Amino acid sequence: MGGNIMTLWTVFTDVCLMGMVFLAGQILRAKVKFFQKFLIPPALIAGFLALIFGPNGFGIIPFSSSLGTYASVLIVVIFAAMAIGDKPAKGALSGPAIGGMFFNITGIAVLQYAVGMFLTVYVLNHFYSLNPGFGLMMATGYYGGHGTAAAVGQAYEALGWSEATDLAYTTATVGIVGGIILGIIIINWGARKNYTNYVRSPKALPVSMKTGLIPKAEQSTSTTGTISTICADPMAFHLALVLVPSILGYALSKYLAPIIGVEIPAFCTALLFGFIMNFCLHPICPEQKKASLREAPDTTIWKHYVTLPILLL
């Protein structure tokens, strides 16, 4: 596995190492009170472990130099799975509640973009030589999260800004850590003032939410089986449902590039095929099972956290 040559064993080794780091993150979340108190995600804990013990830290965990390239591929799978499980809102859900949420979310996004661009153009550019897209990074990470960070970062890298993905991941990580810590502070304050409706104190949160492990008495069946294990493995079948729109999106992106003169990001076309797949599944696949398909990208996103520290240094 020398140099930058990526082999199948390179990928296999990286995935196994990431799995080990992620399990360590989950164990720490289940055992360490500090992580439970601030609800720090195991994926984020795993990212910091990778930073400390990876190639850019003590060098104990031998991640390959190819690890930083995985995000551009994984984001295609994530976007392909996003649409699977969606269903149109019914009349009761499409009124003032959705309208209020739309304007609230849009207002937050516009404010973050406006502040970022204003500071970049009128303040920071007087002290530093910044890329014109720098002003968009705050909203990309804070409002969008790691999925949006990967997507926007890859788009900017295609335009020649090589540090875009690193910066986007940084803002997303700062956003999630800051949001969690500030959120806990606000919850504590609101609970003391009796402003909360469902939780009187963070101490009243269920054990499963603190540790991430659901006690046996609270466990329940989350999906309905639709595939006979005699015929096919359900996990393999569901993975195929996500991978098909992923490869179709990638193929369409490459096919259209020479025709229109612009390469549409593969995650965009994968999202399109994801909606098509969802439309085809709607008559035959229960909502519970489609919901389980959307959990797959959630388990993939933690790899962005693991990759982030290695990209930063």
TrEMBL record:
It comes from the Bacteria. Keywords: Membrane, Transmembrane, Transmembrane helix. Pfam families: Glt_symporter. The chain crosses the membrane at residues 6-27, 39-61, 67-85, 97-124, 167-191, 235-253, 259-281. PANTHER family: SLR0625 PROTEIN, SODIUM_GLUTAMATE SYMPORTER. This is Sodium/glutamate symporter. The lineage of its organism: Bacteria, Bacillati, Bacillota, Clostridia, Lachnospirales.
